[in-house]
Amino acid sequence: MxxxxxxxxxxxxxxxxxxDIYIEVELTNIGGIQLTLEAQFATLFGRHIxxxxxxxxxxxxxxxxxxxxxxxxxxxxxxxxxxxxxVDQARGVIS
Length: 95
Hints:
Layout: E1 4-7, E2 21-27, E3 33-39, H1 42-59, E4 65-71, H2 76-90
Parallel strand pairs: 3-4
Antiparallel strand pairs: 1-2, 2-4
Helix pairs in contact: 1-2
């Protein structure tokens, strides 16, 4: 079973877009949720971005994962969609 999923464009990818977010999820068996967020406006929107990510993980019953997020101004629906896609990929639901 695949344990790593990614969604969106990372900062090393020249195709990155404004209003998007890159999410990387590595499912683990222990440790709870470890979330690392990189965002230009983290002081303004970091709490909201973290909350959206954690709520989507909870809705998908993910209890243990290492999550990396690089925000480029994504809206709430995009954050949740990218998290869902990365988790589904990590679970092997999509490739």
